[in-house]
Fold these 2 entries.
Entry 1:
Amino acid sequence: MILTITMNPSVDISYPLNKFVINDINRVSEVKKTAGGKGLNVTRGIKYSGIPVLASGIIGGTTGEYIQKQLDKDNINYNFYITQHESRNCIAILHEGNQTEILESGPVLDSYDVSVFLEHYQNLLSQAQVITISGSLPQGFPVDFYTQLIEKANKYQIPVLLDSSGKMLLETLVSKNKPFLIKPNKDELQQIIQMDIDPNDVTSLVKAINHPLLNDIAFIIISLGKNGAFARCHHNYYQVSIPKINVVNPVGSGDVTLSGLAVSIHENETVEVMLKRAMTMGMLNAMESQTGFVNMGNYDKYYQQVKVTKIIAK
Ligand code: ATP
């Protein structure tokens, strides 16, 4: 089973409007509400791939209940730590080809919640063969919290796939408790290593992926949007190119890419298959309007078009 961790889930609300008028009333007829948060997109990607998955993290209040109902509808197993604090709403106003977002920061939790969740997580570890950790932390959680989750998983040799950014990612890179895999996009990696990356230049990508901060990470996958990905798996480098596709909504593509990586590691697939699977999942998400949704009927068609080239780095 793959365990997915979403520490700050949300109800994602989308309001499509022909015109968004500031300082006036905007009436919306087609409201869409889904269980959101990066880790829940990962969860759905794994579920679509037919692999057992359990979603965990922290939820609370009526928003938390709504998240559980949505997961029930999708037949997704979950085991959250439930607090008294209301989970957040994230609103996307879709107007005139633009997306204006209003994101609540979510509940403020404290050291009690940290210790209770750590215990909750510890109890789930015996069921997990692979763990994914995605997104931000609730307010009040220490910045090294993911390091603590990784340390516990590493004790049982459960590989952790981490998709985070900024200080939370940096903490894990400087800690002795490393994740097995990270999947930064170009901007997230640039921010960490303080270096510009040219996605079309292999020398620039090799230099970035060999930054000392990344030394002890077994698998590093830099996702590059329409440019595919560049990876270092153990000591080998891989350039992954993808076909041109009809992009409808690329939001969440990175999350669904992570689901492909997790499934492959769970299934002991080769690195080449893993990279092809991950890219295919990302593309399938980008071709749909709904975030974190893929049409698996198109899987084989796009999988065949992903090219993985092993690079001999100079
Ligand atoms: P997000 O934060 O929205 O989840 P991300 O920035 O982490 O995404 P990206 O690098 O944008 O991740 O996308 C992940 C993968 O999804 C890409 O490697 C690619 O396979 C696919 N993808 C994303 N955007 C596009 C696009 N415009 N065209 C083709 N494929 C795309």
Note: The longest strand covers residues 10-17.
Entry 2:
Amino acid sequence: MDIAVIGSNMVDLISYIHRMPSEGETVEAPEFRMGCGGKGANQAVAASRLGAEVVMITRVGNDVFADTTLENFRKNGIDTTHVLRTDASSGVAPIFVDPESRNSILIIKGANAYLSPADVEDAREDIAKCKLIVLQLEIPLDTVYATIELGKVLGIPVLLNPAPVAPELDLERICGIEFFMPNESELELITGMPVDTLDDVGKATDVLLGAGITNIIVTLGSRGAMWAHAYGREIIKAPVVRAVDTTGAGDAFIGCFAKEWVDHGDVTAAIRAGNRYAADSVTRHGTQTSYALADGSLPAD
Ligand code: ADP
């Protein structure tokens, strides 16, 4: 086993609409699509498609979306031993896309809100076989903190992607983690510092280094990523591509980074690979549908 992802799964319910109905009104919309998402699941799928052995610790509901998610994990070669059924709805994201590609998104966490520290403890034996723990914030914060503690006890490095951002994230309780990977807006909200220039971004990372985090990797969209550590900081540029849809780019970056770092332990090379993989993903529509396999091809369906 290489990577334990402890996080969320969602089913995206995407309605392509001419316009939003007003109160009391019913309107017809031209198209509907369903897709598997959720930050935890996206990162697990990216790493697994690149060849990592991934175990997913997550909760699904008691509905058809749970079956869709389980099938998606299996299809992508992810270990589902710790995908737990919950007497609740699955996590879903109804998304409305208008003709100008503007999105309105609702997130219903559903079963994800029930992933508990006890669930993580129950998966301890399998987590202990992994080389990296990957976390985001679409599950309860107490579960995130408990997992970080477990990582310390087991001596397994932890990567935390603070998304979606939780301003109440307690930096004291995440100190000692190996990798903290925000995008610019998450960095701004967590540190309360501006991120208008790269110099600003660097200063904000200093706060996190001071809080005892070993490596801060800030994704910078088309500009690539900044790596800040005790001995300095550097920018690692992303390839120039024609972007058509950047949804899920951060998750592609993290999944690929995790796989490369677990294999080679070289942070710069892992960031370079993450940039390449995420930049490739933004040249296609969708989230998981835009994630390539290790040979650059896309999965059959
Ligand atoms: P998020 O999706 O979390 O907002 P970013 O927008 O920072 O994260 O993107 C994550 C990574 O995806 C970047 O670090 C970069 O590697 C890649 N990326 C995103 N947008 C582009 C783009 N327009 N061109 C090339 N690479 C991109």
Note: Residues 183, 219-222, 224-225, 238, 241, 243, 246, 249-250, 253, 275, 278-279, 282 surround adenosine-5'-diphosphate (CB under 6 Å).
